[in-house]
Write a structure and sequence with these properties.
alpha+beta; about 20% strand
Amino acid sequence: MTYCIYHIPGKKIGVTNNLEERVTRQQGYTEDEYEILDWSDDISYISHREIELQKQFGYRVDHKLYKDLNPIKQELNSMNINITEQTTTFPCPVNKLKGRLMDEIGMSWDTDHGRCCIDPDSIRWIMDNVKTSMYNSDRCYVYNKAFARYFDNNGCCKTNTGALNMSGHGYMPDRFDLIRDWANERGLYDKGDTKTQYLKLMEEAGELGRAILKNDEAEFIDAIGDMVVVLTNLARLGDTSIELCIDQAYNVISKRTGKMVNGTFVKDTL
């Protein structure tokens, strides 16, 4: 079997043994939109070479070598998911998704933001963040950037018993996941709504203002932490995620130019 390293300029570097399936059908790129950087029958060589090239080109580096992924599940895509630049779409309604995912544990795929896979922990994340397609109620999707960020936040590899952190010392849940778990266990998502969370946010903002005026460091830290908790739950109740909100905001501000005026950043206007 021959493996090749493909490069989608400005997007990513990945490995596949089936360009048509992986790059064209799953990811939607035509032949003139990607290039082949290397190929080999030696999966160990190609796996390490992929990491080298990802570092060389300045792309996100995969946490797990290609050769260490499940070689059957990663290529067959037996669930027939659809991957675009922004989303991964599953061919079933939300109420049937968990069972389908459980049948596909071990399957992995590439996105523009990194390699993702299905395991017991990522299933949990998917079910917390999945959305029904506005075009077809029998299909649902997750945002690739948020999904890949979940893998970044939860360490370098996965096992059937949970995520391992970079030192291999056990499960390290993401802070936002812990907040959502806490809120879900207390029924906040079942009985709360965006209006009550907004009022809670204003209350916490008032406490932050008082902490600043009093120069109270402990209250300052506490108020900011409480606001992050409320914003996390507000996003969830608004059918989105705090991670996506942060990513979209950063995508906007990262392109802004301007200058500081009287202690405030004032953006340039066209």
